[in-house]
Write a structure and sequence with these properties.
By secondary structure, the chain is mainly alpha-helical. The protein has one domain. It is 63% helix and 0% strand. Helix 1 packs across helix 2. The radius of gyration is 25 Å and the shape is elongated.
Length: 68
């Protein structure tokens, strides 16, 4: 009985192909990462203004649902 007929080595026999579905999944993943990166950059860009201006800090808190 050969090793490949025992079944535990069957994964090495399969060829991996880059299918259309894999490409679509990668494109969707990149889009989501781009959205989160944009949100993070905007959040970091607001921090200096929020720490100096009381009105900006209050509006951010109001936007997040906290009443100050």
């Amino acid at each position: 009985m050969s090793v490949s007929s025992q079944g535990w080595n069957s994964l090495s026999e399969h060829k991996t192909e880059d299918t259309e579905t894999d490409r679509e999944d990668q494109a969707q993943d990149r889009w989501i990462w781009g959205v989160w990166l944009t949100v993070a950059l905007i959040s970091v860009a607001i921090l200096p203004f929020a720490s100096r201006l009381d009105g900006v800090a209050r509006s951010i808190a109001r936007f997040c649902g906290f009443g100050i």
